[in-house]
TrEMBL record:
Family matches, as Pfam families: YjgF_endoribonc (PF14588)
Organism: Pararhizobium antarcticum
The protein's name: Endoribonuclease L-PSP/chorismate mutase-like domain-containing protein
Domain named Endoribonuclease L-PSP/chorismate mutase-like: residues: 6-146
PANTHER family linked to this entry: ENDORIBONUCLEASE L-PSP_CHORISMATE MUTASE-LIKE DOMAIN-CONTAINING PROTEIN, ENDORIBONUCLEASE-RELATED
Top-level division of the source organism's lineage: Bacteria
InterPro entries, per database record: Endoribo_LPSP/chorism_mut-like, RutC-like_sf
Length: 155
């Protein structure tokens, strides 16, 4: 299964980055029993925040979806690190929580977080189907447009 997941990642033209180190007093992930909890991931790309700003002001939905995709890529990078390089141990993405920096009038957070949801399903198949929340926020760390955390069931 791990080789199949890696092939899907490659077919999508994605290279998983090194898992990002925490930016404050927390750990990037915790394994408890059969669950892997991934701390909030920002839309990091090439070592910096790839998409900054607020949806409904200076970021459009398509760019917000790209930010959510980057967050999902970073979630998978953290999972790969936590699981000793074996993404095949992912039994299911249980839930993601998507936080979207947006102006009060913006009401399409759910469309933004689809960027992450779609990518996880495209890479993991049925194991990528998950429950989720998509929440508007006044601001996020480092002016990131999106932040997403995840709960993953592991084998």
């Amino acid at each position: 299964m791990s080789a199949e997941i890696e092939a899907r990642i490659k077919d999508l033209g994605i290279t998983l980055p090194q898992a990002a180190a925490p930016a404050a007093n927390y750990v990037p992930y915790v394994i408890s029993g059969s669950h892997l909890y991934i701390s909030g991931q920002l839309p990091m790309e090439s070592g910096k925040i790839g998409v900054t700003g607020h949806l409904g002001k200076d970021v459009d939905v398509a760019t917000g979806q790209r930010a959510a995709e980057l967050c999902a890529i970073n979630i998978l990078a953290q999972a790969k690190s936590a699981l000793g390089g074996d993404l095949g141990r992912i039994a299911r993405i249980v839930k993601i929580n998507g936080f979207v920096a947006s102006v009060p009038e913006f009401v399409e957070q759910h469309l933004v977080i689809n960027g992450a949801s779609n990518l996880l399903v495209n890479i993991l198949g049925d194991a990528g189907v998950h429950a989720r929340a998509a929440v508007g926020m006044a601001s996020l760390p480092f002016n990131a447009a999106v932040e997403i955390d995840a709960v993953i069931e592991i084998a």
